[in-house]
Amino acid sequence: MTHDFTGKAMAVTGSSGIGLGAALYLARSGARVFLAGIDTVMNDKAAALAAGEGLAVSLHHVDVADEASVRGWADQIAAETDTLHGLVNAAGQQSFGTAETTRPAEWDQAIAVNLRSCYLTSHCLYPMLKAAGGAAVVHVSSVQGHNNQDNVLAYAVAKGGVHALTRAMAVDCAKDAIRVNSISPGSIRTPLLEFSASQLAVGGKSIDDMIGKFGASHPIGRVGTTEETGSLIAYLCSDAAGFITGADLRIDGGLTAQLCI
Ligand SMILES: NC(=O)c1ccc[n+]([C@@H]2O[C@H](COP(=O)([O-])OP(=O)(O)OC[C@H]3O[C@@H](n4cnc5c(N)ncnc54)[C@H](O)[C@@H]3O)[C@@H](O)[C@H]2O)c1
Predict the structure, then answer these.
(1) Whose CA is nearest to atom 11 of ligand 1?
(2) What is the fold of 9-186+225-249?
(3) DSSP string of 153-171, one letter each residue
(4) End-to-end Cα, the chain, rounded Å
(5) Alpha carbon of 95 to those of 89, 141, 174, 205, 253: distances in Å?
(6) pLDDT tens for each residue of 21-41
(7) Which pTM does this prediction carry?
(8) Which residues pair with 13 in a beta bridge?
(9) Is the CB of 224 under 6 A from ligand 1?
(10) What is the C-alpha separation between 162 and 88, in angstroms, rounded?
(11) Is 235 a catalytic site residue?
């Protein structure tokens, strides 16, 4: 399925992985994309990739956990457009730990980057989303917001919070013709997944071995791609999803459908 975003401006956070995949998908479908990332190397790579395809994607150095930085991004966007038809919150960070081992600063960081950021960008970009007279917000949550593995306390809490934020925003924002949904990916091959694989690789296993193992635990038998998440995000931002708001769509190869008994 393809969607036409010609003449529409979209804001996306996360300049690698799922965020970059969504930005490229939307830009290939005609959108003007304002892409925010904190990592200058990733920002430069994303800019080069988009330029190579002649896509309308501009890169912005933004810390989504910092209010002044997000307000600065909003000002940069407002200098170029009065209206935004979409906001995709894909910036995020994995964190590991239990209630016993997670330090308060690590908890605060995980919540700030994975949850508070979704509120903060929505808050700062709201006037432009409202002015579009029909806009969509997609927050990238995780299967870990539904069920979780061990040792991911703060991350799981943040992702569960994203589901609550999605519902609450959907109810409040409908009056302004803004739909709000989230997606919950299973394992998707991105730098974040490769980092998780490197943390879990033991006994001479490579990152590819670990990613193959992650894939085998999904009923579909593989991990997902950023083209697949980009396609779902574009669908949720499109008019084809005009009656969908407050939903969380799992894109997890059946991972959370199975009972591990
Ligand atoms: N890859 C997966 O398997 C998977 C599964 C479920 C959920 N997710 C979620 O998808 C989202 C995207 O992750 P990804 O897999 O694409 O990983 P990724 O590491 O490629 O992308 C995350 C991006 O967020 C950026 N970022 C981190 N902190 C930031 C900050 N303070 N300000 C601005 N940018 C910041 C990183 O630099 C990076 O570019 C995350 O929210 C993650 O939790 C990923």
Answers:
(1) 90
(2) Rossmann fold (3.40.50)
(3) HHHHHHHHHHHHHHHHHHH
(4) 36
(5) 18, 14, 33, 21, 23
(6) 999 999 999 999 999 999 999
(7) 0.98
(8) 36, 89
(9) no
(10) 13
(11) no
